[in-house]
TrEMBL record, chain A:
Species: Halolactibacillus miurensis
PANTHER family (UniProt xref): PTS SYSTEM N,N'-DIACETYLCHITOBIOSE-SPECIFIC EIIB COMPONENT (PTHR34581)
Keywords: Kinase, Phosphoprotein, Phosphotransferase system, Sugar transport, Transferase, Transport
Protein name: PTS system oligo-beta-mannoside-specific EIIB component
Gene Ontology MF terms in the entry: kinase activity; protein-N(PI)-phosphohistidine-sugar phosphotransferase activity
UniProtKB/TrEMBL annotation, chain B:
Keywords associated with the record: Cell membrane, Membrane, Sugar transport, Transmembrane, Transmembrane helix, Transport
GO cellular component entries: plasma membrane
Locations listed in the record: Cell membrane
Name by which UniProt lists this protein: Permease IIC component
């Protein structure tokens, strides 16, 4: 199962993306757990995740999360802002899977 | 233009990075988040206790009894919110460092109480609630920072009592905190005693006079507010979360101002002391669809847009926009780095801030009552609640939506035309 964690300031706008990504994962028959949290919860939840993607508006937190990510072996990246604006579940899911597989 | 924008982003990104990853500001922001559910609980009951027309409906006496019955809900939460903020900050400070966070919370509360004069007038053995609320907000924040740091320092110096093997870990943990906590609190006691010899008498008084009063009076003014609003917009223009960056600096001021209004509101004052408060920003400037008040922009899109792209954006953005989540608009229009929107994006919130401030200062619209309305509360309702159940709060939000609509309209038409022509060419 692929465990994909998204984070933004309050976990609100990323949760919009979660429902879109879940729908795409279902269509593809992909076994995935996708959830969104507020930035302060992210380091804790990373322990249970295969990858962390953060909203582009929080990209200034990437360095901080990368540090935790390295300790836990969890890749961290920023969601592409065009995909974010379109709430493009498919593109972000691809992005997440690529990161997990590369890891 | 592009070069200039890249240059600006190169300046802003490190600033956002610094502000947001600063240990103290992070603890402050996350500490407030700990207090928030408690504050909102209290706010709900302030709203319920001040329902309109209820006094006419059930009679003056019954209404007073009703208000009395509900008052503990806000008195125990919103009124003494400083206590919960301290708890949160102390906890988060120690948690960041990987220490035992609960001791960080405990030592911060204790340190704050050590500094607190436990008399009120001639009555001894009381803790004045005002000190746990607005007045003590800044001292509480500093105390939590310092107490948690001292605690961590003493823990890291290994000044702990080592327990022999076989002692249950919970037991040895409770002792391991003993020395660091004792030393920390002893320092705070010394500080309190020393202040007793000064003209300020208490640390509360000192921090309030030297730091809190000047900062809040600065923060309650229109210039500082415009600067804060502009900074939020500029950060967002570069796709960086403006509020989370600016709020970590302004929140202590805005919340303290908010508490002053709450005290006055609950005391039944006719005119509340402050215009700019936490809710002034959250309800009347940000809380109309999110930063930049994009709900009005979405309305404009529904009315005038011909291009596929903007029409789709409207459909995509409206659902979350009602609840003040507007990343789809910001990244989808896009607003970020888009030279066509920079003027309305920066101008509209400033004009709205000035108009709201003016209308509140002349009394046309009631000032925020000090209740904390969750930021996801839809516009129009939030204005009503934030002003203490006053319909004029809703009217103010409508006026603000009108302002944003008018400022955006010409620019939106240009953007729409561009998109529309590009779409026609592509077909």
């Amino acid at each position: 199962m692929k465990k994909i964690l998204l984070a933004c300031s309050a976990g609100m706008s990323t949760s919009l993306l979660v429902s879109k990504m879940e729908a795409v994962a279902n269509e593809r028959g992909l076994d995935a757990k996708i959830w969104a949290v507020a930035q302060d919860k992210a380091p804790e939840d990373m322990k249970e995740a295969d990858v962390l993607l953060i909203g582009p508006q929080m990209r200034f937190m990437k360095k901080k999360f990368e540090k935790t990510g390295q300790e836990l072996g969890v890749p961290v990246d920023v969601i592409d802002s065009v995909s974010y604006g379109r709430i493009d579940g498919s593109a972000v899911l691809d992005h997440a899977i690529k990161l997990i597989e590369k890891n | 233009m592009n070069k200039f924008m890249n240059m600006l982003e190169n300046v802003l990104l490190p600033v956002a990075d610094k502000l947001n990853n600063n240990r103290y500001l992070t603890a402050l922001r996350n500490g407030f988040m700990v207090a928030l559910p408690i504050i909102i609980f209290g706010s709900i009951f302030v709203v319920l206790a001040n329902l309109p027309f209820l006094d006419k409906l059930i009679g003056e006496d019954a209404y007073q009894a009703y208000q009395q019955a509900l008052s503990p809900a806000s008195q125990a939460t919103l009124t003494i919110m400083g206590l919960f903020v301290i708890t949160g900050i102390g906890y988060k400070m120690v948690e960041q460092r990987g220490g035992e966070a609960i001791y960080g919370a405990a030592v911060s509360i204790a340190a704050f109480l050590v500094l607190t004069p436990q008399v009120l007038g001639d009555t001894a053995n009381v803790i004045p609630t005002s000190i746990l609320g607005a007045e003590g907000m800044f001292l509480g924040i500093f105390t939590a920072f310092i107490a948690a740091e001292l605690y961590q320092l003493f823990v890291s110096k290994n000044l702990t009592i080592k327990m022999p093997q076989g002692v249950p870990s919970a037991v040895s943990r409770s002792f391991s905190a003993l020395i660091p906590i004792s030393l920390t609190l002893a320092i705070f006691l010394a500080v309190r005693i020393l202040f007793g010899f000064t003209d300020y008498d208490t640390v509360q008084n000192f921090i309030y006079t030297i730091i809190q009063a000047p900062l809040t009076s600065l923060g309650s003014g229109l210039p500082a507010t415009i600067i804060a609003v502009l900074l939020i917009q500029v950060f967002w223009f570069f796709g960086l979360h403006g509020q989370i960056i600016i709020n970590s600096i302004f929140d202590p001021i805005w919340y303290a101002l908010n508490e002053q209004n709450l005290e006055a509101f609950q005391a039944g004052a006719d005119v509340l002391p402050n215009i700019v408060t936490k809710q002034f920003i959250d309800t009347f400037i940000v809380g109309i669809g999110g930063s930049g008040m994009t709900l009005a922009v979405l309305l404009a899109i529904f009315i005038v847009a011909k291009s596929r792209q903007l029409k789709d954006l409207g459909k995509l953005g409206i659902g979350s926009g009602i609840f003040n989540v507007n990343e789809p608009v910001i990244f989808g229009m896009p607003i970020i780095m888009n030279p066509l929107v920079i003027i309305p994006w920066l101008l509209a919130p400033v004009v709205v801030a000035i108009v709201t401030y003016t209308l509140m200062s002349i009394g046309f619209v009631p000032r925020p009552a000090g209740v904390i309305v969750p930021w996801t509360t839809p516009a129009l309702l939030s204005g009503y609640l934030a002003t203490g159940n006053k319909i004029m709060g809703t009217v103010m939000q409508l006026i603000n939506m009108g302002i944003v609509f008018v400022i955006w309209l010409p620019f939106l038409k240009v953007i729409d035309k561009q998109y529309y022509e590009a779409e026609q060419k592509a077909n």
